[in-house]
Amino acid sequence: MNFWEYLENRHQQLLTDAYQHASVVFQCMVVATLLGVLIGVVTYRSEWAGNLATTTTATILTVPALALIGLLIPVVGLGVPPTVVALTLYGLLPVVRNAIVGLRGVDPSLVDAADGIGMSRPVRLLRVELPLAWPPILTGIRVATQMLMGIAAIAAYASGPGLGNVIFRGLASLGSANALNQVLAGTLGIIVLALLFDAAYVLVGRLTISRGIRA
Asked: Where is the ABC transmembrane type-1 domain (predicted)?
């Protein structure tokens, strides 16, 4: 059968795999964002601490995804756990780096003004510094999400959820009737999901970033 016939016959399974793929990436990005921003908040005031945080998360990113997932299998088992751990770790670097850059880029005069009206440090952080640092943080989230969309496909190696299973089945049966259809369907599905997520982030940016900051 041709590609369109394959999609018509397997659309239900493909939609299920696409939902699982999007779900695991979204959930891991939520965790990576919370952890990354927290690390940024804790380390941005210190040069060495910020460099340590950036270097550590960058080092994690240099570990091949297949190797990291393979190392996690004996520790957390197969399926969702190694997928979640690996994706969360890989998503940290762009968020941590952009959180530190964004927080360090806040105009000191605005911080002084917040101090002058009696804001405590936690209140100042939540009401002044983080909102002003949000644009670069959101950019880091967008970059991390695009990375995780591709890396999540490799999680099929550990029986993880998502469209990687479709791609792996196709690669394992190269030469059969639907092998290329499976690889193509899984790959295009990931691309479409990445574009949809990025469009959603653009909308989030328009809703959460004031015109003055965007300018």
From this structure: 18-201
Residue 8 neighbours by CB under 8 Å, 6+ apart: none
pTM of the entire predicted model: 0.90
Q: What is the residue whose two structure tokens read 């999901």?
A: 193
Q: Could you list the pLDDT tens digit for every one of the 215 residues in the chain?
A: 788 888 888 889 999 999 999 999 999 999 999 999 999 999 999 999 999 999 999 999 999 998 999 899 998 888 889 999 999 999 999 999 999 999 999 888 888 888 788 788 888 888 888 999 999 999 999 999 999 999 999 988 888 888 999 998 888 887 787 889 999 999 999 999 999 999 999 999 999 887 666 55
The CA distance from 78 to 76, in Å, is 7
The contacts of residue 144 (CB under 8 Å, 6+ apart) are: 29, 32, 90, 91, 92, 93, 94, 95
